[in-house]
Amino acid sequence: MPDRDPPRSSVPESRNVPKKRTRLSLVWFIPILAAIVGAWVAVTRVLSEGPKITIVMRTAEGLEAGKTKIHYNGVDIGTVSTIELSADHQRVILTAQMAPKTEAFLVDDTKFWVVKPRISGANVSGLGTLISGSYIGMEIGTSKEDRRDFVALETPPVISGDIPGRFFILKTSDLGSIDTGTPIYFRRLQVGQVASYALDNDGKNLTVKVFVRAPYDQYVNPNTRFWHASGIDVSLSASGLTVQTQSVLSILIGGIAFETAATALVLPPSDENAVFTLYGNRTEAFNPPPQHPQTYQLIFKDSVRGLSTGAPVEFRGIQIGEVTDISAQIDLKTFEFSAPVTISLDPRRLGVKILDLGPGVNLETMRRSLIDALVAHGVRAQLKTGNLLTGSVYVSLDFSPGAPRATVDWSQTPVQLPTISGQLEATEATVEDIIKKLDKVKFQEIGDDLRKAINQLDKTLVDAQGTLASAQGTLDNTKDLTGPNSMQVQQISSTLQEVSRAARSLRVLADYLERHPEALIRGKKGEAK
Q1: Are 69 and 115 in contact (CB under 8 A)?
Q2: With bands split at pLDDT 50, 70 and 90, how would you rate the model's confidence at 524?
């Protein structure tokens, strides 16, 4: 069968047709150009705004979003944009927009605080905010690490970072009148101030951070002593009344003074944040610390009223220790009350120098021998009044020749030293002895004898009264004889006149004979012979 051509399909053949290009209309150039300009403006604004930071504060009192500024050295470098509460509602979170080119300011140790009127110690700050309103202060740190979230300080720093000087740490158990900004004195010059203070974690002491300006910080070395210079230090001694104070300002708000003990060895200045002890006064600061202190116990059977912990222990007027503990005890056998007093002695304060101390000599044995010798010679502990106004009492160790014999038992812990009654008890014993002696006096017999003597005296007075009456009569008679109109007075007057005339005649005769002595032989001239 012959081949036949297949039937042709009725579907037309496909072929590639090139796609026509659509031309962009000029209308689209305007929005594209606007988008490009908007993006450029947005990028420019973002780059020109500067960084954003957050500041956490306890309260936002006096602050207002969009108005409160951030100042550094009086220059506005930022604005608070938003203020909101934290998630726990305990804090306030501020978002601030900083000025351009402030990225270098925002480092790890940069500090922020609210500037408002404050009075702290000797510092009065923020008075300008009474008119302009509160703002946020800033201190740039020195760290190299960047930071964008900060926690604001509760109080502004007293010392800014650009003031030359050094910080030191003081340890004390009593803060006294110290506050932030309290001045620091060196030889009555104000050379620094207290930067901050805080209670230690154990609650026993306080840590005070102080700043001493240059060049005075070079005078602080390991031998430097710090002490409270608050108020007025008044002392009365044999030299008279002495009043000392650092300044009028320290009287009002307190202060801290420091001084370096004079030594032959010159020490280098102390390092930053060196730790020192803050003493109560200058005397306490320069008292040498106890070396090898010795603990003893004293048993007093009299009252310990006025004695307190820290009271001095003196040996013949020299302070050699202090009272460390006072307690009470009672003997169940005799029901006798007594007060054990624990004292700590510093032998070095006694000023005893041991000469020719050979090798191998046991100092503990020598100390025991010295205590035994003192007790054997009559050294006893006694309570004495230190101040009549306050009634304070101290412990006195002194020689008492009439004290009963005593020894020291070194097996006890602590070792007990012998005591005698205090001044008040001794006075009471003396008064009691006087009363006993007065009881032995026979006052009844003395009264009877005195009554007899008084009766005899009455009789004597009666006789004396009669004698006085007789004398009065004699005086009356004498008055009659010596009266101006009495006969005796007139006769005496006439006799005196005659005597006066006779005396006058004799005086005339004596004058004539003095001129004419020959009249004694020849007679008076002109007379008949």
Answers
A1: no
A2: low
DSSP 31: H
Distance CA 56, CA 152 (A): 6
Residue 169 has pLDDT above 90, yes or no: yes
Alpha helices in 85-160, H assignment, sequence order = 129-132
Task: Report the pLDDT value the prediction gives residue 1, as an integer from 0 to 100.
Answer: 45
Q: How confident is the model at residue 45, as a pLDDT?
A: 67
Q: Which two tokens stand for residue 205?
A: 């002491």
Say how far apart CA 505 and CA 266 lie, in whole Å. 115
C-alpha distances out from residue 249 to 117, 184, 279, 367, 420, Å: 21, 11, 20, 49, 48
pLDDT of amino acid 274 = 92
Residues 347-357 as b/e (b if ≥16 CB within 10 A, e otherwise) read bebbeeeeeee
Instruction: For the chain, give every domain's residue range.
Output: 47-151, 165-286, 294-353+362-436, 443-478
Helix (H) or strand (E) holding 21: none
Q: Supply the DSSP string of 463-523, one letter for each residue.
A: HHHHHHHHHHHHHHHHHHHTSTT-HHHHHHHHHHHHHHHHHHHHHHHHHHHHH-TTHHHH-
pLDDT band at residue 504, thresholds of 50, 70 and 90? confident
The reply to whether omega before 414 is within 30° of 0 (cis) is yes
**194 CB-contact burial (10 Å; exposed 0-12 / middle 13-18 / buried 19+):** buried
CA angle 53, 57, 62 (to 5 degrees): 100
The whole-angstrom separation of Cα 287 and Cα 292 is: 15
Q: What are phi and psi of 103, to 5 degrees?
A: -60, -35
Give mean pLDDT, residues 229-250.
53
Three-class SS of 253-289 = HCCEEEEECCCCCCCCCCCCCCEEEEECCHHHHHCCC
Residue type, 486: S
Relative to beta strand 189-199, strand 312-315 is unpaired
Task: Spell out the SS3 assignment of 47-66.
Answer: HHHCCEEEEEECCCCCCCCC
pLDDT at 341 (0 to 100): 92
Q: Which residue has the higher pLDDT, 470 or 1?
A: 470
Pair 244, 211: CB distance under 8 Å: no
0.70 exceeded by pTM: no
Total residue count of the chain as it appears in this document: 529
- Can you tell me the distance from the alpha carbon of 225 to that of 185, in angstroms, rounded to the nearest whole number? 12
Q: Is 254 left (phi over 0), alpha (psi -120 to 50) or beta?
A: left
The alpha carbon dihedral of 22, 23, 28, 29 has a sign of positive
Helix (H, G, I), strand (E, B) or coil at 189: strand
Q: What is the pLDDT of residues 389-432, one digit of tens each?
A: 777 888 988 888 888 888 888 888 888 899 888 665 666 666 67
pLDDT for 241-280, tens place per residue? 455 555 555 555 568 899 887 775 778 888 989 999 998 8
**Buried b / exposed e across 172-193, counting CB within 10 Å, b at 16+?**
beeebebbbbbbbbbeeebbbb
